Amino acid sequence: MDSNHYLSRRRLLQGTAALAVGTGAASLLAACGGGGGGGSSSNATLNLADLGVGDPGDWSKFESEYDWKVNLVAIGNAPAQVVNVLQSGGTGKYHVMDCVGGMQKPLVQNDLIRPLDTDRLPNWGKNEFISSYFPEGDAGFAFIGYEDKFYGYPTVLQGDSFAYVEDETGPLDSYGALFDPQWRGQVALEDNFTTAGQKAALYLKSSGQAEIGDPANMTTDEITTVVDFLVDLKKAGQFRAIWTSFDQAVSLLTDKEVKVIDCWEPIAIAAQAKGVKAVYAEPQEGWLLWAYVAYLVNNPASKDATEDAAYELMDFMGSGWYGATITLKQGYLTNPEALTYAEAHSDEFTADDVAKIKDISERVKKKFEQGGTWQNRWPDNVEAYQTEWARFTAS
Prior knowledge:
This protein is of the alpha/beta class and 395 residues long. It has 2 domains: 3-158 and 289-374, Periplasmic binding protein-like II (D-Maltodextrin-Binding Protein, domain 2); 160-288 and 378-394, 3-Layer(aba) Sandwich (D-Maltodextrin-Binding Protein, domain 2), CATH 3.40.190. The protein has helices at residues 14-32, 60-66, 79-87, 104-109, 128-133, 166-169, 193-206, 220-235, 246-254, 265-273, 304-316, 320-330, 337-344, 351-370, 382-394; strands spanning 45-50, 69-74, 96-100, 113-114, 145-146, 149-150, 152-165, 187-190, 239-243, 260-263, 278-280, 287-297, 372-374. A hairpin with a 2-residue loop joins strand 5 (145-146) and strand 6 (149-150). The chain starts with 13 loop residues before the first helix and ends with a helix.
């Protein structure tokens, strides 16, 4: 795996994302005519870099209220790609970037994003999830903060584990199922160290098979131990596939190629919709926790009115309507106002919609209560992670 693919993650619009990254600044410039922006007007546009899953499909509520258009450009989510998009001219074109958080260290050190003034975000103070899941001093803070400052506005929260075909395997509740010889040749892993690798580390630590201090931020020796374990299993034929895209993972389940798969919950949901009895496991070792966050891009061409609009867009992404829409569309926890808004607006959300939003929200909140390990987007020994994971994929 090369460095640009490192930690590749939940690109539901993978083809569009790859195109956006590959064409870079030129395509974005052509699509939106530059990125500075002046005073608010019906022709003013905010450029939002997003994975695609943060797109509600209709920005008219924001656009009519604030008189700014939103131009969403899908990007890749691998950490190196996120940094490269901004370093290769993106700071002069984007105003807000919404991606999996925990990227503050390289973004701040390269002067690519600005710290947030939370007083300019009215919904920040209403969002109890921020104080509950991202408090300073806890692991979650690393997803939104850096050196005692806030840089990311959390827009989506989720916890990952693995899926299994219950009528083939019976109930499973441990990451050990991914490595159990009983399912040899019927298991798939994601090509991503901070999903498959961290889950393997969680399992090895919890089962006492390896001494690992922090599965989310391992030493070089610990990383080697985890990869040695995976390489041995791969050579023994444990893994049917190392998947790289959402569609591929769904097909592995629907085509009955695998019975156990390291994956994101929307993959299991997609397989269920196609008639597969895929169950998303509640692992005894804990969940792999993560969050999307919105970053304020350090766009040197932005004038005061443009920055004001960027703050308004981020705050809109913390609103009840946006949260309810994204929860319903993507199956993620968003913000505390989402359910309240849906319940109060029967003209926009049906009773079935409200029930789904409530069920999804309660289910994801339970994951955070149960705990686990936060995905680490930029571990201390990032080069060792890259080198060792490449050794696994090449084995």
